[in-house]
């Protein structure tokens, strides 16, 4: 084996350079915040009673979980693209 082998694989270095872990944490927090607000608005009837009463709170909980994942993925990809752009500008 070569003595000049990198300590981390190139993919791990790339992910670390783009701050993907930090971006994923921010994305997840954003997704949870949006979903909690949407769930509270719909289920707790913050804006008053809803005319449409189809659907249970359990149904809206599953939709809120889907919203968490969608917003988290969108924010994570967006922040990672910004990180990649900044890294490319530095080089």
What would your notes on this structure say?
Keywords: Membrane, Transmembrane, Transmembrane helix. Pfam families: DUF7536. The model has no long low-confidence stretch (mean pLDDT about 85). With about 90 residues, this protein is mainly α. Helix 2 packs antiparallel against helix 3. The longest helix has about 35 residues. It has one domain. Helix content is about 75%, strand content about 0%.
Largest sheet: none
Number of strands: 0
Elements, N to C (H/E): HHH
Low-confidence stretches: none
Shape designation: elongated
- Strand fraction: under 5%
How many domains would you count in the coordinates? 1
What is the number of helices? 3
* Terminal CA distance: 31 Å
Q: Helix fraction?
A: over 70%
Pfam family, one: DUF7536
Transmembrane segments: 26-44, 59-85
Keywords: Membrane, Transmembrane, Transmembrane helix
Outline of the structure:
Keywords: Membrane, Transmembrane, Transmembrane helix. By secondary structure, this protein is mostly helical.
